[in-house]
Each structure stands twice: as C-alpha cells, then as structure tokens.
Amino acid sequence: MKKILVGKFKESFISILPITILVVVLSLTIAPLELNVLTQFLVACVFLMIGIALFTLGADTAMVPIGKSMGSYLSQKSKPWIMILVCFLLGIMVTIAEPDLIVLAGQVKTVDATSFILFVSLGVGIFLVIGVLRILFKIPLSWILIGSYGIIFILAFILNQAIVPVSFDSGSVTTGPISVPFIMAFGLGLAAVRGSNSSEDSFGLIALASAGPILCVMLFMFFNGVTGGVEVDNAVSTPENFGDILLSFVNAFPSYLEEVAIAIAPITVFFLLFQFFALKLPWQQIFRILVGLVFTLLGITIFLTGVNVGFLPAGKEIGSIIAENYTWVLIPVCALIGFSMIAVEPAVTVLNKQIETITGGTISKKIMFLCIAGGVSVALALVALRVWLQFNILLVLVPAYAIALALTFFVPKIFTGIAFDSGGVSTGAMATTFAFPLMMGACEALGGNIMLDAFGTLAFVAIAPILTIQLLGLVYKIGIKRKEAKEEVELSKRVEILEFD
Fold this sequence. Notes:
By secondary structure, this protein is mainly alpha-helical. It has one domain (2-228, 237-500). The protein is 82% helix and 0% strand. The longest helix is centred in the C-terminal third of the chain and has 44 residues, at 457-500. The N and C termini lie far apart (63 Å). The model has no long low-confidence stretch (mean pLDDT 85).
C-alpha cells in the first residue's frame, strides 16, 4: 500500500505542475496577482496534490469494486423492475450531493438551489435507467443520443435564451469525481453479462447522465419563469495575511468534508446492504473497500477545499486583469489553461485508466489525455472569444453537436461511448472553480452579461472532447481498413507466387 501511495503522489505532483507553473508565470508577467491571492493559490496546489493522490487510490480500491460488483449482481440476479428502481435511486443519490453541482446551484440566486439540484438529480436518475435499459436490450447508443439532443435543441430554440447556457452547464457538472468511478464500474458490471460486446456497452452511462439534467433544467427554469434578469453570486473574498490564508483552508475543510460524506454515504449504505443480503464478499475485501472509502472521502475533501479556496479567486482575478488590459491575449492564455487543467481533473484520470484497462491498452491513457486536453484547450479559447464578442452559445453548440452525432454513424461504436463519456468527465471541479470564475471575471471586466456570456463555459468544455475522440476513432477506423487492405494485397501476392511455382 505504501509503495502504491508513493506512486500516486508522484503522479499527482506531475499533474499539478503545469497549471502551477502557468499561473505563476502569468502572475509575474501580464496578470500580476495580489500576493495574498497568489499565496492562497500555491497553498491550494499542495492541497490538490495530496487530494488527487488519496482520491485515485480510493477510487481504485473502493469506488470501482463497489460499482462493478453491484452492477454485475443486478444484471444477473435481479428482476428487471428491481434493477430499474435501484438504478433510478442510485442516479439521484450519487448526484444530489455532487460538490460541483452544489457550486453551480449556488451561483444562480434567482431559482431555489434545492429545487434546482433535485431536478438535475432527477434527470440523472431517469437517464441512468435509460442507459441501463439500453445495455440490456442492445439499443444503439447513437440513437438515444440523437433523440435526446434533438429534443434538447428544439427546446433551446423555443425557450428564453437566458435558460440555455445554465441548462447545458448543469448537465456538465453531474459527472464529478464521486459519480464517475462508480457509474463507470457499474456499467462495466452490467455489461459483463453481454460477452463480446461488453467493452462497447461499458461506456455511455456517463454520457446519458449528462444529457438528462439539461432537459430537466430547461423545463424547470421555463416553468419557474426564469428570464434574462437572473441574479448571479459573483463575489470572491481573499484573506489579508498568511495566517488568515491558512485559516481559510482550515475553516473550509469541515464544510467540504460534510458535503463529501453526504455524497458518499448513499453509495456506502447501498453497498453494505447488498453485501449483507446478496453479495457475500470476503471480509478481507470488505475491509479493503472500507479503507478505500476513507481515502476517497479525505482525497475529494482535500481536493475540493484546495480548488474552492485557492483556485476560484485566482481564476477570477486572472480573467479580469487580462480581459481589461490585454483582451486578445485572453484567447491563447485560456487555451493553455484548458490543456493544463485537464491533467488535474480526478474524474478524467479515473476514466482514462479504465478505458486503457477495458480496451486492453488499445486506447492508451496518454492518447486519451492528449485528445481530451487538446479538445478542452480549443474549447476554452472559443469561450474566451465568446466572452469578448458576446455571441449566442447556440452558434457553436448546434453545429458541434450535429457533427458529433453524425460521426456516431462512422466511428467504431466503442469510440462513441468513450467520446460522450469524456465530455462529461472533463467538466469537473477544475472547470467549475477555475475556468468558470476566470470567464466570469473576464465577462465582468468587459461589461458582458454573466448569465448569457459566461455561463455555457462548461458546455463548451464538454463538447470538445466528444469531437476530438470521435475524430480519433475515425482515424483509427481508417487505419484499420488500410492495414487490412495492405494485408490482403500481400496475401494475394503470396498466392500468385505459389501458383507460379
């Protein structure tokens, strides 16, 4: 265990290094941060390094085994109605206390935060059931995605435009570090009974868990009469000295510990009930899982404390300074931030590792990281351009999703599920508490409408990896066909030589 933990710390240090260097360089050049803001950011980087290491260890030893064992049992032993009910309840419970969702709900003050969170969770529960039924009845993922996003975009053109950005963002924050490893492993367990298609069917649950909330929030905000005059909580405060900086982290830790504990509790209770009544796993394995849950709890809590206390004010101030003084520079800076912040997203790390495992190394972690990070880099550059020029979000999302959905008919099926799942995991805590505040600061400095011009940042971040990974799938498919054609030509030549002899 000690050796594994040391390895996790080494990985987390490497992942946090690029964003740390980037912010320090910006602070020393074009975006000079106040000393207390920069110090708070650097302390937060230490928190992130510790948090990522503990979380990834916890995900490997607890969240993944829990999800896989429960999914496998339900698919083999339970009646369909029991499976549907359990999946619906799990979808709600793993979402309702998702920290990223709580952060987003707190930004929009006009609507009731509790009702907002409930509707988002309801969307996840319903679409998680749809995803499970898709696996069981062998329904192509592409058809469900086309139907879902078809309805979403019809509503997007009909409803008030102030509703659209926050609706898409709500779908992006549901798949965070708590839900992703569980849902991924849960899908793998369900798909295991399918045999040869299990690797393809293992993906797609996260994609649907992201689509459901968009639809539910659109309807929720429409029936609540939300218009363009939405009040947004955009206040950020920073301590005045180093002692107060450390105290800000200490004071924030208990509240995030409580949030994460509430988020993990339902999964833990469900698992223990399954263990008692059905699974009957060895107690040595149960002990290992319980220890892993403690690592998960501490890891996510430390991580969230760091990003919320230290990254959020730094992001807002960087965005404000650059937009006010070097507006066009905001675009390349956001591209660099987009690439570097993906290395720090815990959910992306979990997804990439599981993809490499499930595909037997055919799709490596390195390739996945480059595709997701490259896509997010372009996405944040587009967001900066949108904040600057203040154009409608649908001008980008409609053609982007149209291309993404069209590609589902041309790429290998496994790439479709991986691509849409990647879109969900790329919008985690870093996007919510660093990229989003950065855009809010820039929007405020340029005199834009935060609701119309800054909200939607997460939606841009979500669609980018969907496109890049499907394009990777297209290149992969073309490469396979060329290889097969070359082998056929070589085989035919050998046959001709044999006939000549």
